[in-house]
Automatic annotation (TrEMBL):
The gene is Abhd3. It comes from the Eukaryota. One of its GO terms (biological process) is medium-chain fatty acid catabolic process. Residues 108-322 form the Serine aminopeptidase S33 domain. Belongs to the AB hydrolase superfamily. AB hydrolase 4 family. The keyword Membrane applies. One of its GO terms (molecular function) is acetylesterase activity. Gene3D superfamilies: alpha/beta hydrolase (3.40.50.1820). The active site is at residues 189, 316, 345. The chain crosses the membrane at residues 6-24. This is Abhydrolase domain-containing protein 3. The keyword Transmembrane applies. Keywords: Hydrolase, Membrane, Transmembrane, Transmembrane helix.
Length: 389
């Protein structure tokens, strides 16, 4: 008896459904120190941490979901950014894009500072989703734009994962303006790497009430090795490298004498870009020194004194699960990490509609609502009495 095509289709579909329901829809694994005040805070107020994550039904695997998420035709158009250039002591310039609907400054609202990924801008899809959702909840948002991305480089220097000087200036500038405001930070991917380092360097004096760190490659040495594999290279590395090269191209004259133009022209991966650009500009002996220097070590994790919730997926090509310091985080008083099955790198699309609010945004909003509404219950955060240095 021959099977009809319909029967084959139906049974394949059912087979796939069986597979999907077996493998997805799990609660994230949460690693935190059970006895810490932060752990109790999360248990009491952040219910998304126990919500099952149903990875996007059509593309549940992280690799392709990352691409789907990046290519989705989301049309948020945050049209109300007020952009401000911030000059750095070394003659550089970076951007603060303030979300100000109605062009109003509302200094009583809690504020979230967004540090986006490597080549992202205030207009990148996921950044706009975060901004929109924050505004919807009655919070304010400001996006930091690294040198060279939305405004051209003014000097022969762009950015590097181990240099938080611009971030320090950004937070100081904002805190100086609003000494008594509730302010939290969110770092995504590269931005998360910088934010974690910043929080570690500043300890009790981070000037932020809380932080959310998403898809952070805590160990860039491991992340880089994974990204150089040919399939990942083809999937993501090529696009990111092209964007990095555009930053260089736009400000090429600023880098004369610092980098070798002929070599940069032939760059085909992030690692090669870092060999010929980042490592050179920031004075590293080699790219391996640069990556090693960018690792968020256990010592760094223990120096963080700002309540910090991290979220990652177990199939993130930029953040190999083996390189995630989740056991170490569970020993600290201020860090917790949730790891989902599926979600990819800055993906976390959920359910059957890829345009619905991604899981990471849901968790982020849940967290910030808790942070702002119950700030008095956060560990060791009293009334903000910041002295600006
Ligand atoms: C910020 O810098 C950009 C690029 O250099 C420039 O076009 C823009 O006018 C500057 N904005 C302000 C407010 O100075
Ligand atoms: C948080 O606080 C605001 C303002 O006090 C209130 O409108 C909102 O309902 C609160 N949200 C939650 C989830 O408690």
């Amino acid at each position: 008896m021959a099977l009809s095509p319909t029967a084959v289709l139906v049974s394949s579909f059912l087979f796939y459904c069986g597979y999907y329901f077996m493998h997805y829809g799990k609660q994230p694994q949460v690693y935190k120190k059970k006895t810490s005040k932060f752990s109790h805070f999360l248990d009491n107020y952040v219910t998304t941490l126990v919500k099952p994550f149903w990875s996007f039904f059509v593309v549940p695997g992280g690799r392709f979901q990352t691409i789907v998420a990046a290519l989705l035709p989301r049309d948020y158009k945050v049209s109300y950014y007020r952009k401000e250039n911030i000059s750095t002591p070394d003659g550089g310039e970076f951007l603060l894009a303030w979300a100000s609907p109605g062009n109003k400054d509302e200094p009583t609202k809690p504020l979230v500072v967004i540090f986006p990924g490597l080549v992202s801008r205030s207009t990148s899809g996921y950044v706009q989703i975060i901004v929109k959702e924050l505004i919807k909840l009655g919070f304010s948002a400001v996006v930091m734009g690294n040198r060279g991305i939305e405004i051209p480089c003014q000097t022969g220097k762009a950015f590097c994962a181990a240099d938080t000087n611009d971030m320090q200036l950004a937070v100081n500038t904002i805190r100086e303006r609003y000494p008594n405001r509730l302010i939290a930070g969110v770092g995504i991917s590269f931005g998360g790497l910088l934010l974690s380092r910043y929080l570690a360097q500043k300890g009790e004096n981070s000037k932020l009430q809380a932080a959310f760190v998403y898809c952070c490659p805590f160990n860039p040495v491991a992340g880089s090795v994974n990204l150089e594999k040919w399939d990942n290279w083809l999937l993501y590395n090529v696009f990111l490298t092209n964007d990095l090269l555009k930053i260089y191209d736009r400000s090429r004259e600023k880098f004369v004498g610092v980098v070798d133009h002929q070599k940069l022209k032939r760059v085909r991966s992030i690692r090669e870009f870092d060999i010929h650009m980042t490592a050179k500009v920031f004075g590293y002996e080699s790219v391996d020194h640069y990556y090693k220097d960018s690792v968020i070590t256990t010592k760094f994790l223990h120096s963080i004194k700002t309540p910090t919730l991290c979220l990652c997926a177990d199939d993130d090509a930029f953040v190999p699960i083996k390189s995630l310091p989740y056991q170490e985080m569970a020993q600290t008083d201020y860090i917790a990490i949730a790891i989902t099955h599926g979600g990819g790198h800055v993906g976390h699309l959920q359910g059957i509609n890829p345009l619905s609010t991604p899981y990471f945004v849901e968790m982020m909003m849940d967290y910030f609502t808790a942070v702002f509404n119950h700030s008095d219950e956060l560990p060791e955060i009293e009334k903000p009495t910041y002295s600006v240095q």
